[in-house]
Write a structure and sequence with these properties.
Helix content: under 10%
Strand content: 25-35%
Strand order of the largest sheet: 3-4-7-10-14-18-22-26-30-33-36-38
Radius of gyration: 24 Å
Shape: globular
């Protein structure tokens, strides 16, 4: 044992000397990337006494190696080479202990956290992760195995899943064919239908401590139930799948499923940040009990945008917000989303509470959401003011009244509603609405919310009410235009009725006539 300890000690001295000698070279080489020492990968960036998050630029690496120029990427196109960034590779079961440095698929790291720790913080880095199931390896609370979480700590970093492990261009990845799973199932014993098998899982599968990007992953098996005395934020009881405090993460093309929280956000909890984006995601079978926001909870989160996503089979059996719960969160915009079969005590799809100003729900579809109390689809309650608007959306098959309000006035325009708008005192029917008619979906029972050619929703919307494309859904860099694509990524405004004028449809899916 003494010989082993001497070897390890000398090895670290050699590594430290290598870092000192390489400093000048690394400072001039934009392709340089740090190599993580697996022996020292730990929770050293965390203050376990204060339970606080590390600085977003924190690093746990202890050596550096030069990167080959042919693994660089153009950050706008994903094409090599340019020399203005770096790529770190992750793939299971390939490299040996000493060969794994993340510099290529052949020398890929075996775990995402190793790549996050190795990626440089001073230049833009992408992390490419091959298909497989990955379990977090770093704890945030000393001695607590369940505090293991993927800690995303560098704002200059974008993390992409969905690779087979041979690609040379990011555009070659196929998310559907290469499922890349981040799992909180530390013991490998999960049964999503039996919640008792989840209570030994990670409190949070993913923890954002920087405003970086997570794209192309399945996040599952988080179980946020840790009660800490005098913790007013309840952060370890919130965000079973993903948690973020004070950051503005981008979460795109992800599936968030089978996560649980006690307080807020079974799937995702965003708090105290500005400008977060959730785009093209699926929220499936997340749960919060007894709290709020089964899929997403946002508190004190300003400027968030949620678009082109589906929320289905999520449950808040004792609180509001089976899909999304919002409190004290101004400037929230949700567009081109589908809310299907969600359940809550109130606001089965969407619940907006307490000083949440400038909230716009535009171009969404709400179908078969259920509550025992008010607001089968949407409830807005508390001290809210300024532009609370629901527009260009379909409400069908929900328990009426589908929109409920307490002490507020909600602007409702160009929707298809089950209940006549004029009969609900909390609604300001500022524009035309269609009531009591069937939207005539193609096959809603099987998740197809496209419109048949007899639908009254065709060309019945108002394009002037659309939000701007802040998520740049069509990747043309124009974020000032109206959102140009619908939930299915088709052109959003077309001439559906053949009268020669292109006009927006009501609902998340635009009708495209057969040519």
């Amino acid at each position: 044992m003494k010989k082993i300890m001497i070897y390890l000690h000398n090895r670290r001295l050699i590594v430290l000397l290598a870092v000192l000698l390489a400093t000048s070279a690394c400072s001039h080489d934009p392709m340089a990337i740090a190599k993580v020492d697996r022996d020292t990968a730990s929770a050293s960036d965390w203050d376990s006494d204060s339970d606080s998050y590390p600085d977003s630029g924190g690093d746990t690496v202890d050596s550096a190696t030069a990167r080959d120029s042919d693994t660089s990427i153009d950050t706008s196109t994903g094409s090599p080479p340019t020399g203005n960034g770096c790529v770190v590779f992750v793939k299971q079961g390939l490299a040996s202990y000493d060969e794994s440095d993340g510099s290529s698929w052949d020398k890929a790291f075996e775990n995402l956290q190793q790549a996050v720790n190795a990626a440089r913080a001073d230049i833009f880095c992408e992390i490419w992760v091959a298909a497989g199931k990955y379990i977090p390896i770093e704890s945030t609370i000393a001695g607590d195995e369940r505090s293991k979480t993927f800690i995303l700590k560098k704002p200059t970093m974008s993390i992409y899943g969905g690779f087979a492990g041979t690609e040379t261009l990011r555009t070659q990845r196929n998310i559907d064919a290469n499922p890349t799973i981040l799992s909180g199932d530390l013991q490998g014993d999960d049964d999503p239908d039996e919640e008792t098998t989840l209570n030994n899982n990670s409190y949070h599968v993913v923890t954002f401590v920087s405003s970086c990007r997570l794209d192309g992953f399945t996040v599952e098996g988080g179980y946020a139930d840790l009660v800490i005395e005098n913790d007013a934020t309840m952060k370890h009881q919130s965000g079973g799948g993903i948690i973020s405090f004070g950051m503005a993460p981008t979460i795109e093309n992800c599936t968030i499923r089978n996560n649980v929280a006690q307080a807020r956000g079974g799937g995702v909890y965003l708090s105290s940040g500005f400008g977060g984006k959730i785009t093209g995601c699926t929220f499936d079978s997340n749960r919060v009990y007894p709290g709020t926001g089964a899929s997403i909870a946002l508190t004190a989160q300003a400027g968030a945008t949620i678009d082109h996503s589906i929320f289905r089979n999520n449950s808040a059996p004792a609180g509001p917000g089976g899909g999304i719960f919002v409190a004290e969160a101004p400037d929230l915009k949700t567009t081109n989303c589908v809310f299907l079969n969600n359940y809550a005590q109130a606001g089965a799809a969407f619940a907006i509470y307490n000083k949440s100003n400038n909230v716009i729900l535009d171009g969404n579809t709400f179908y078969r959401n259920e509550v025992p109390n008010g607001g089968a689809a949407v409830i807005i309650a508390g001290d809210n003011s300024n532009d609370l608007r629901v527009s260009n959306s379909i409400f069908f098959g929900n328990i009426a009244p589908e929109i409920n309000g307490t002490g507020v006035i909600i602007s409702v325009s160009n929707n298809l509603l089950q209940t006549p708008c004029e009969h609900l005192s909390w609604l300001n029917c500022s524009g035309p609405n269609i009531t009591g008619q069937n939207p005539v979906f193609r096959d809603a029972n099987n998740g197809d919310f496209g419109l048949m050619n007899s639908s009254p929703c065709i060309d019945a919307g108002d394009a002037s009410l659309q939000i701007t494309d802040v998520s740049d859904i069509d990747k043309d860099t124009d974020v000032a235009e109206s959102v140009p694509l619908d939930y299915l990524m088709q052109t959003r405004v077309v001439d559906g009725d053949g009268d020669g004028t292109a006009q927006l449809d009501i609902g998340a899916v635009e009708y495209v006539p057969v040519q």
